[in-house]
Amino acid sequence: MAGASSKPHLIPSQPPPPAERSTAPSKQETSKNPAELQQTIDQLLSQVNLPEIRSSAVDRKQDVDRPNNKRGTVRKLGQLVPNQAIQPTSVTVSGHRLVGPRNPLSTGGEQGLVLTVSRKTPFSVYLKRALAHLRKPKAGPLIFRAMGCAVSMALSLALAVESHLQIARPAILTKELSTGTVVVGDEVVPRSESVVEPELIYQTRNQASIEIKLSIKI
Fold this sequence. Notes:
The chain is of the alpha+beta class. The protein has a domain at 72-89 and 101-217: Alba-like domain (Translation Initiation Factor IF3, 2-Layer Sandwich). Helices cover 33% and strands 28% of the residues. Strand 2 (90-91) and strand 3 (97-98) form a beta hairpin. The relative contact order is 0.14. Mean pLDDT is 69; it is low at 20-24, 27-31, 50-66 and 83-109. Its main location: nucleus.
């Protein structure tokens, strides 16, 4: 009995429960997580219709850039002379509009020069023609005419001519400025998906105008 009691009592070891083994991820499983995450992201992105989102954004931008997009496409007809009503433009048999000749860049002979300023023509072109005219012997007056957004360009041209032109005394450069309002016309093509050829709309609006006269007096 004594010998039997002296032996140590050993408790057999038991394996950990299955739940504990599953909570500790292995290195192989952790290495697969980024790949599975990327695969999940790709699946989610494939479900989103990205081309439609981009096209709708482009359409909204084009609608903003298009002039007068609420009513339709606007074609500017230019200044109207007094007592002139807006008339539809002539159309050929094929449907193309007949556009009349545009106003020339300048009018007048050797006695004077009138430059109609437009933002479509470079600033340097007007400046060279103005300086070449005033440097002629017995040059007539130089007149800048502009309206709308080209008014600031006409004022800058007058200042540039004065700074670049060197006049010997007793000659002086005189300046005259006059402002006003002109009536311009527009041709509007309404936006219509049901009508193939919608009826054109003609409208008038007012624009600010300016005339600057430069002349050399002795």
